[in-house]
Design goal:
arginase activity, alpha/beta, eight-stranded parallel beta sheet, about 300 residues, Arginase, manganese
């Protein structure tokens, strides 16, 4: 991805959103700083990118209260997502590539709502790759916990409170057919029914076991063209906890290091990546920042680092 004389280097904006208001455990609020300590800016600059670290947005504290009407911390979740939405939308409007450093995965509502708004404004199609151990398709009626980090995909598809479902200016923010979920291996019974009803394309771990990561990614990336904005929402619990312990919601049996690298390299090969979330990194559960360093390693692969000496 070296810039040519006629093509200026791409500008990447790092946007820290340090909150765990949507999560089941405290600590994801420390994720942005752990990613910075792991050298995310310097690692991306090594790939001829101009990297602006915009610092952290500032939102309400986590009140750590029980759910109300099936939602935990709804007002605070809305506030943080609006901040994420506004920062990501401004970055896209400037022609930059935003990387949201979370924070928990409830923030995917704000980030992807901003991407959806931008795509409508500029007449582009949208493809969302949701790299996660969980489907994140709970609603207030079926959630076992009320934690909104288990609800962002449902909210983006129009199932949830209007304050979240309408954040992009349109409901649903994205059509379910725009989503490809990869690495899924923990889905509540009610979620499974809704995911099937919405006809979301899911490449779960059994599919990856049987068919391989390469085949899953070929299908997930199929039909992309130069009018498609590709957004990757990377929940660090996508990875097997044996290599990535620094998350609050570990689920055994995730992608190995090489499977994850192949996933990222195939995304990079498309040349279509236009926005990114990195979420659910929880340094309180990590060992000497190894999960943050692995996450940065994988993000670097999204921008051209490869194990092959490619021509």
């Amino acid at each position: 991805m070296n810039p040519s004389a006629s093509q200026p280097p791409r500008i990447v904006d790092l946007i820290g959103v340090p909150t765990d208001v949507g999560a089941s455990a405290r600590g994801a609020s420390m994720g942005p700083e752990a990613l910075r300590v792991a050298g995310i800016r310097q690692r991306l600059e090594a790939h001829d990118l101009v990297v602006h670290d915009l610092g952290n947005v500032a939102g309400p504290a986590n009140p750590w209260q029980p759910p109300v009407d099936g939602y935990r911390h709804l007002d605070e979740v809305v506030a943080w997502n609006q901040l994420a939405h506004d920062a990501v939308h401004a970055s896209l409007k400037a022609g930059h590539l935003p990387i949201m450093l979370g924070g928990d995965h409830c923030l995917g509502v704000g980030s992807i709502s901003a991407v959806a708004r931008h795509c409508r404004e500029v007449g582009r199609k949208l493809r969302v790759l949701w790299l996660d151990a969980h489907a994140d398709f709970n609603t207030s009626a079926i959630t076992p916990s009320g934690n909104i980090h288990g609800m962002p995909v449902a909210c983006l598809c129009g199932l949830g409170p209007q304050s979240l479902t309408g954040m992009s200016g349109e409901v649903p923010a994205i059509p379910s057919k725009a989503i490809r979920q990869i690495g899924i291996r923990s889905v509540d019974a009610g979620e499974k029914r809704l995911v099937h009803e919405q006809d979301i394309e899911v490449f779960d771990m059994r599919y990856i076991d049987e068919m391989g990561m390469r085949h899953a990614m070929e299908l997930a990336l199929a039909t992309l063209d130069d009018r498609t904005h590709l957004h990757v929402s990377f929940d660090v619990d996508f990875l097997d906890p044996g290599i990535a312990p620094g998350v609050a919601t570990t689920v055994p049996g995730g992608p190995t290091y090489r499977e994850a690298q192949l996933c990222m390299e195939m995304i990079a090969d498309t040349g279509r990546l236009a926005s990114l979330d990195v979420v659910e990194l929880n340094p309180a559960f990590d060992l000497r920042n190894q999960t943050a360093e692995l996450a940065v390693d994988l993000v670097e692969s999204l921008f051209g680092k490869s194990t092959l000496m490619r021509k």
